Amino acid sequence: METRLDVVGLGLAIVDVVLRVDRMPKWEDPRGLLDFTVADGGPAGTACFVASTFGLRTGFVDTVGDDDLGEHRRRSLGRAGVDTSRLVPREGPEDHVVVVYVDAATGERVFSFRRGFLSRPLTVDDLDRPYIESARILHLDGSHGAAALAAARWMKESGGTVVLDAAATSHKVLEPARALVAETDVLICGSGFAPNLTGEKDVWRAGRAALDLGPRVVVQTEGPRGSYTVSRDAEFHTPAFEVDVVDTTGAGDTFHGAYLVGLARGWSLERCAAFSSAVAALHCTVLGNRKGIPSMDQAEALMAAQPARKQTAMASTS
After folding, report:
1. How far apart are CA 216 and CA 160, in angstroms?
2. Could you tell me which of 246, 186, 247 has the C-alpha nearest to residue 221?
């Protein structure tokens, strides 16, 4: 390609129908809906949307249905400047649809997936290898397993960086995910992933053990408790910023997108984590995924307004 991309994402972009409720509906009591919005989401899709919003050149690879919702997904990414030329058409209605119920009191969510969700994943044959290798960074969310693993190996062979968004889990991490971790340079994982990947319950020990499996950086995100970063050269905790939370949907995906910005611009790990935490926090003040992406000035202002929330370096222990 004539212009090299900063990031190619391979994973999910989703149509989120977000309902803010003070209680879950029942047949005998359907009331309780306070607000709603259609706010597109998906882990890798949102991360690329955020990265593009902050000025990175991004592309995205996923399947897409041939109906109006499929076209909506394509346009949603395109409005942020994400290249959607490698979305792979699938005959039939769009299946990347999720209804999100948001608790008005806490901002926490319950998800309801459309039947057939991710039933027609990408295959290796669907991928354009030169397109993927045209990017400096490949961002994955663990979906489209075989295709994601192939893309990660191609990126490693071409000298690029592989970033993996590994979702929070309370279960043992299975072999397909382990194989993907082995091809990953920067592992950003949700609560429980690193401990269940390594067998180490302590977050620091889990991070160090995960480094031995392939990544050079491991970041564990813990929501309101902030994030924990481990590399061969540094270990530190980054507190979460205090904001008035409306909706936590997509907070982790937004964190990942902001982290891609820092990686692409060569920032220190400390600045990557602080910036990502600020962007994710501000995102939580608005209802709906991709609805509350702040500007660079807003993120910098939050970081300056809460200077006491400094990162804490950890002394290396066995």
Report:
1. 13
2. 186
Q: What pTM, to 2 d.p., does this model score? A: 0.90
CA-wise closest residue to 256 among 146, 140, 171: 140
Q: Which residues contact 282 (CB under 8 A, 6 or more apart)?
A: 241, 243, 292, 294, 298, 299, 302
For each of the chain's 318 residues, which pLDDT tens digit applies?
446 899 999 999 999 888 999 998 889 998 889 988 887 889 999 999 999 999 999 999 999 999 999 999 999 999 999 999 999 999 999 999 999 898 998 888 898 998 888 888 999 999 999 999 999 999 999 999 999 999 999 999 999 999 999 999 999 999 999 999 999 999 999 999 999 999 999 999 999 999 999 999 999 999 889 999 999 999 999 999 999 988 877 889 999 999 999 999 999 999 999 999 999 999 989 876 677 789 999 999 999 988 655 666 664 443
What is the edge-to-edge ordering of all strands in the sheet holding 161-166? Answer: 58-61, 5-10, 135-140, 161-166, 186-189, 217-221, 227-231, 235-238, 312-313
Measured in degrees and rounded to the nearest 5, phi and psi for residue 164 equal -120, 125
Residues listed for the chain: 318
Tell me the H-state helices in the chain: 43-53, 68-79, 129-133, 145-157, 175-182, 193-198, 203-211, 251-264, 269-283, 296-305
Query: CA–CA separation, 94 vs 64, rounded Å?
Result: 6
- Please classify residue 271 by burial: count the beta carbons closer than 10 Å to its beta carbon, then call 0-12 exposed, 13-18 middle and 19+ buried: middle
Within the chain, how many helices (H) and strands (E) appear?
Answer: 10, 15
Q: What are phi and psi of 81, to 5 degrees?
A: 95, 10
Provide the token pair at 131. Answer: 């397109």
Strand partners for 58: 7
Instruction: With beta carbons less than 8 A apart as the criterion, state whether 45 and 83 touch.
Output: no
Q: CA 271 to CA 279: how far, in whole Å?
A: 12
